[in-house]
Structures are given as structure tokens and as C-alpha cells.
From TrEMBL:
Keyword annotations: Coiled coil, Membrane, Transmembrane, Transmembrane helix
Coiled-coil residues: 56-90
Domain of life, per lineage: Bacteria
Domain M23ase beta-sheet core, first and last residues per copy: 201-297
InterPro entries listed in its UniProt record: Cell_wall_metabolism_enzyme (IPR050570), Dup_hybrid_motif (IPR011055), M23ase_b-sheet_dom (IPR016047)
One Pfam family of this chain: Peptidase_M23
Keyword Transmembrane helix on entry: yes
Species whose genome carries this gene: Xanthocytophaga agilis
Transmembrane segments annotated in the record for this chain: 25-47
Protein name: Peptidoglycan DD-metalloendopeptidase family protein
GO terms, molecular function: metalloendopeptidase activity
PANTHER family: LIPOPROTEIN NLPD, PEPTIDASE-RELATED
Length: 325
């Protein structure tokens, strides 16, 4: 039952009933509702931090899954970029060197793929993970641009190949010993510890550690320009002149089965691995010379290796260990 309020009227000396106006009731109700609404707004974040709805739980799980998939996709993008970098290195340091073509400028390879307007559609949506999506899209676009440039480079190389079939057959393009498991490369090109003098010296070739008597093959078509027996230095040595400024050298052989002036084909047997000259163990020391300059032979093993195998061989050759001669 509603409480009735009275007040004392000093004029009539009586208690009079308090009359409540409808406007006062409306104001009171409105005030109560306003206070309740403000309290609910203040308590809502606290409530939501401790109690989530089923929909919010599902959305949170979905966000976590999306972030996980993004991380996986990002790793795949990094692997693809690394493989493309390996192809680019072979293109600049092998194919274009071989055909004496100018490398593609860095400014062209690293050119941008458009300004902010290119991603205007993503920016206008105001997505929650906008930065994540935008960075991934930019990485993909950059990778696609690099792949396009690389394919155009290969198109140019194909044209050069068609014009230089004879030259291709003459160039050193395979490993001089069988090395399918990539375990025989013992020392690469560059500064290495000399096995006898125990000081860092320039190693002008690559060493393949093999058993004595392992077959050695010519790495390209050419003519035997040197076939000599030495008691020191390179020991039993063979040199093949391939033309186009290229010469390959095979040292420390047990014996060779070719003679000066003889024509050989790529893959033809020319001798056997030994340990003659200044050698500490059976191995083949192999060099490539271009226009009189000794260059890294690792860049010429492109005819019998996949990109992944070539990358592994690069890693092995970069180890600064002790040479075998």
C-alpha cells in the first residue's frame, strides 16, 4: 500500500495531505531510470571482462585460429621469398655471368608495387586486424612483382640459350665427381686454413673429398690444354680449355687418361682421384678460370642440381674450414 505523506499547515493549524504532481512523479521516475542506466554503463565493461557471451567466446577462438593461420602463412611466404632469392642469386651470378649479360638493377628488383591507393579498399573497411591484413597483402604483392621480374629475366636467358647452344655445351656446368648426396664438398672458395702451413690463405678452388680412384669427369666440352705429372704443387694435373675464356683445372689426380690436344665432352672420364702434390688426403682440387681470373666454381654447378640442392651446396662451401691442399 502506498505511503501517504502529510504536512502541517500553519495557517489552518491542520495536517494537510501532500499532493504529488504528475510532473514530479515523472521527474522522479526519469531520474531513477537515468541513474540506473549510468550505473549499468559503468558496470558493463567490468561484467564483460569476467563474463563473455557464447558469441564472444566463439569470436575470440576464431581470432586466435586466424592469428595461428597467419603465422603459418607468413612462414610459408618467408620460405618462398628465400627460394626466390636463391634463384635470383643463380640468375645474377651464374646465368648472366655465363652469357655476359648485365645483372638486373637492384632498383628494378626492389621497385614498389603502388601507393596507399592500391590498398584503399582494405583501409576503407576499417577492419580490426587491418595492419595484419595490409602487411600480408603487401608482402604477397612484392613477392609477385619479384617473381614477374625473375620470369622476364629467364625469358631473356632462354633467348641467349637459343643463340648460344654451342657455348652452353662448352661451359663447365656439372660437378667433376659424382656427388648425388652432396657430402663430398670438403672446402670451398675463399680464405681457408692451409693444411700444411696452418695459416689462412686464399683457396682458389673447391675440394671434393673422395676415395682414391674415384672417377673424375670433364665438366664441359673442350680441348685438353695441360696434362702433366708434378711432384709438388697440384701433383698430377689436367686443364681443359672450353673456349669463350673458360678453363677448368683438376689437381692431385692419381692418374689421368687423356693427353694434350685431345677433345673431350662434358661428362667424359678424364682421370681418377688421388693425393699427389701438396695434398694431405685423397681429394680432387677443382678450379674454374674465366679470362685468366680464378672464379668461384660453386656458381657453375647448375646443370645437375635443383635449386634446393644448390642452396645446400652454397651453405657447405661457405664454411671457413681447412682446405685439403
Amino acid at each position: 500500500m502506498a505511503r501517504i505523506k502529510y504536512y502541517y499547515d500553519t495557517e489552518t493549524c491542520k495536517y494537510e495531505r501532500v499532493k504529488v504532481k504528475p510532473s514530479d512523479v515523472a521527474i522522479n521516475i526519469l531520474g531513477f531510470v537515468s541513474v540506473a542506466f549510468l550505473c549499468s554503463l559503468a558496470l558493463m565493461p567490468l561484467y564483460n571482462s569476467y563474463f563473455r557471451s557464447d558469441r564472444e567466446e566463439a569470436l575470440q577462438r576464431e581470432n586466435q585460429e586466424l592469428k595461428l593461420y597467419y603465422e603459418v602463412m607468413n612462414k610459408e611466404l618467408q620460405k618462398t621469398t628465400q627460394m626466390l632469392s636463391a634463384l635470383r642469386e643463380r640468375d645474377d651470378n651464374i646465368y648472366r655471368v655465363i652469357f655476359e649479360a648485365s645483372p638486373i638493377p637492384e632498383s628494378v628488383r626492389e621497385a614498389g608495387v603502388g601507393g596507399v591507393d592500391r590498398y584503399k579498399e582494405i583501409l576503407e573497411k576499417g577492419l580490426k586486424n587491418e595492419e595484419l591484413i595490409l602487411s600480408t597483402r603487401q608482402k604477397i604483392d612484392k613477392l609477385k612483382k619479384k617473381m614477374y621480374i625473375q620470369t622476364k629475366s629467364y625469358d631473356e636467358i632462354v633467348t641467349l640459350v637459343n643463340n648460344k647452344t654451342k657455348m652452353l655445351a662448352s661451359l663447365p656446368a656439372i660437378q667433376p665427381v659424382s656427388n648425388k648426396e652432396l657430402k663430398r664438398l670438403a672446402s670451398g672458395f675463399g680464405m681457408r686454413m692451409h693444411p700444411i702451413y696452418k695459416v689462412m690463405k686464399m683457396h682458389t678452388g673447391v675440394d671434393f673429398a673422395c676415395q682414391r680412384g674415384t672417377p673424375i669427369y670433364a665438366t664441359g666440352d673442350g680441348v685438353i690444354s695441360v696434362a702433366v705429372h708434378n711432384s709438388g704443387g697440384y701433383g698430377n694435373e689436367v686443364q681443359v680449355s672450353h673456349g669463350y675464356g673458360y678453363i677448368t683445372l683438376y689437381a692431385h689426380m692419381e692418374r689421368f687418361i687423356v693427353h694434350t690436344g685431345q677433345r673431350v665432352k662434358r661428362g667424359q672420364l678424364i682421370g681418377y682421384v688421388g693425393s699427389t702434390g701438396t695434398s694431405v688426403s685423397p681429394h680432387l682440387h677443382y678450379e674454374v678460370l674465366h679470362n685468366g681470373q680464378k672464379v668461384n666454381p660453386i656458381h657453375f654447378f647448375y646443370n645437375d642440381l635443383t635449386p634446393m640442392e644448390y642452396q645446400k651446396l652454397l651453405e657447405l662451401a661457405s664454411v671457413e674450414n681447412q682446405s685439403l691442399s
